[in-house]
Amino acid sequence: MEIRQLQYFVQAARLNSFSRAAESLFITQPTISKMIRNLEEELGADLFYREGKSIRLTDAGEILLAKAQNIVESFVSLSSELDGLRNLQRGHIRIGLPPMVGASFFPAVIGEFHRRYPDVTIRLHEDGAKKVEDDVETGLLDIGAIVLPVNTAKFHCFTFVEEKLELLVPVGHRLAGADFVALKELEAEEFVLFREDFALHDRIITECVKAGFQPKVVYESSQWDLISRMVAAGMGIALLPETICRDMDRTRIAVIPLTEPVIPWQLGMIWRRDRYLSFAAKEWIAFAMRVLGERYLPPEQAGKNE
To answer: 44: alpha, beta or left, given left = phi > 0 and alpha = psi -120 to 50?
Structure first.
């Protein structure tokens, strides 16, 4: 039995797919299928039920997974520590970014980091903040940018954005000329939101319920620019962060401060407390903190709204 066989097996079990596991490991699907088949023959037991393109663990697979995860994590930790000691200039970092966060804040940071460390590869994964947090927790990502607050018993965190949400309405809307709008005034409106895997989806609905109404959601999207276009077309209203609102077409959309309550939008970068980080990942965190010009977020502050 080889450590590589266990690595392939654990990744396939995590993703419930040979093809997705192969993609994440930068190998071909036939390679991972053959390696796992060899492992099954060596153990004398099937590890997966193969159902078309999907897979799920057998009883034997469940038993092996419980042991293999510890073995693989220990091996990866050992290898990472040795690699980091040998050469800080080399490494691979997996970073998760929600789409609007990545586009707004990270191109310059990533570009400058690459110029300083050209042999460090960065693989970016774009997903909603909730999915990014889950993937950092399970180890599929090393680092992730998310909407705070976060569970600081599990994660280290630093904040790099503190803003608030603003209201978007089409020009000609009854509220378009208002100096500010209370959330309660939006009870009769139709909302355009981010999808459920985005943290803002739940945040906005929760605040509306606190204000005394359940928002009527007519459309959901993963793209802020599409949301703004839907508002401009009169499909509904939206609540978006200040950074995004600065790029709105003011000939078609009115942007209005939201009050009673003000809904904060804080972004932080997280990584697991109990997992080893490569020297490259540690340097990325330190570099990002310097470039973004922010500070470390103390645990009691990061989790104050949990």
So the answer is: left
